[in-house]
Amino acid sequence: MTSLLRKAFDRASQLPQNLQDQIAQGLLEEIEGELKWDETLAGSEDFLEKLANKALQEFEAGKTVQKGFDEL
After folding, report:
1. Rounded-to-integer distance, Cα 20 and Cα 6, Å
2. Is 12 left (phi over 0), alpha (psi -120 to 50) or beta?
3. What is the pLDDT of residues 22-63, one digit of tens each?
4. Are 20 and 13 within 8 A, CB to CB?
5. Phi and psi dihedrals of 63, rounded to 5?
6. Cβ(23)–Cβ(31) under 8 Å?
7. What is the DSSP secondary-structure string of 7-49?
8. CA 14, CA 61: separation in Å to the nearest integer?
9. Distances (CA, A) of 1 to 4, 9, 48
10. pLDDT at 15
11. Which of 40, 12, 47, 46 shows the shortest CA–CA distance to 27?
12. Which three-class secondary structure state does DSSP give residue 71?
């Protein structure tokens, strides 16, 4: 465990039990989300590579249009 995480747990342990439980629940949900995201990305590597290659081919063929976020 890192020193920063240990410090956060030490500080959280000083809070009332209901707030500790809320923090713990949020942390567990965040960890589960990260694990799912890692799993999803690991399982889609070939698919993402195919999409990237297709996008590059379309760009090189002049089939793409540059837009800003406000134009999407």
Report:
1. 14
2. alpha
3. 999 999 999 999 999 988 888 888 888 999 999 999 999 999
4. yes
5. -95, 10
6. no
7. HHHHHHTTS-HHHHHHHHHHHHHHHHHHHHHHHHHHHTHHHHH
8. 61
9. 8, 11, 33
10. 98
11. 12
12. helix
Q: Tokens representing 18?
A: 């209901």
Q: Say if CB 58 and CB 64 are below 8 A apart.
A: yes
Looking at residue 17, its amino acid is Q
CA-CA distance, 38 to 32, in Å (whole number)? 10
Look at residue 48 in the predicted model and tell me its pLDDT: 87
Helix (H) or strand (E) holding 57: helix 45-60
State which amino acid sits at residue 1.
M
CB-side exposure of 26: number of CA atoms within 13 Å? 7
DSSP assignment letter at 62: T
Q: Count of residues for the chain?
A: 72
Residue with tokens 């949900």: 29
